[in-house]
Each structure stands twice: as C-alpha cells, then as structure tokens.
Amino acid sequence: MKTHVTRSTELEWTPLTEDGIETDGIFVKVLRFDEAQQRPPTFILKFEAGASYPNHNHPAGEEVYVLEGEVRFGAVQLHAGDYLYTPPNATHSVYAKTIGLKLRSK
Questions:
Q1: Which of 20, 77, 91, 103 is close enough to 65 for a disulfide, judged by CB 3.0 to 4.6 Å?
Q2: pLDDT, tens only, 27-79
Q3: How far apart are CA 48 and CA 44, in angstroms?
Q4: What is the pTM of this model?
Q5: Cβ–Cβ < 8 Å for 41, 105
C-alpha cells in the first residue's frame, strides 16, 4: 500500500446511509477507502445528541477513539480522549448522549 493523506478538514460531513438501518443524526467523513474490500476501514463518525446505531457485529474487530462528546458503546460510557478496542466478532450498539465524534478503524 502506498502512502495516503486525507485532509479531513477539507471533507464535508455526509449523512451515513446503510440499507435497512436507521441512521438519522449520524454523519461520516471517509479517511481511507479500501478498493479490494469495497469499504472504508478508517473514517470519522459524528453523532448528533440522541442519535444511535443498533447492535452490530465487528468480524475483524474495531478500534475507536472519541474525539469529542460522550458516546455509549453497549454498557461502556466513553468521553473525549477515550479509546476502545472491540475484539473480533464482538457486538455492541452505539448511543450518543451529546454530540459525539469518533474515529473508527477496522
């Protein structure tokens, strides 16, 4: 893989859309798109206060760094500066108590 730079401050927030999943109040900035997997392994999500994402699985695991706000991952409450590692095949839902920004990498 070659070096890749994304200037996230130059990207617009776009609504997150996923078939069959309610994603109102969730926005995304894709930092890197993997052509082979046809998905972004690294992105920033913005949750408006009260926005949520239903219980879901991470087959390859997940790493999250909360940039701003308060976000609940299952039973775990995270605040700005917190890091969460979710092991492969773990499941959780997400709920934002306040506006929350999270950096997510597969």
A1: 103
A2: 999 999 888 888 888 899 999 999 999 999 988 889 999 988 999 999 999 99
A3: 13
A4: 0.87
A5: yes
What does the DSSP assignment read for 38-84? TEEEEEEEEE-TT-EEEEEEETT-EEEEEEESEEEETTEEEETT-EE
- Residue 80 CB partners (closer than 8 Å, separation 6+): 66, 67, 68, 69, 70
Domain boundaries, the chain: 14-105
Token pair recorded at residue 18? 């996923």
Q: What is the pLDDT of residues 10-27, one digit of tens each?
A: 999 999 999 999 999 999
Minimal CA–CA distance to 98: which of 78, 74, 81, 76? 78
- Which architecture characterizes domain 14-105 according to CATH? Sandwich (2.60)
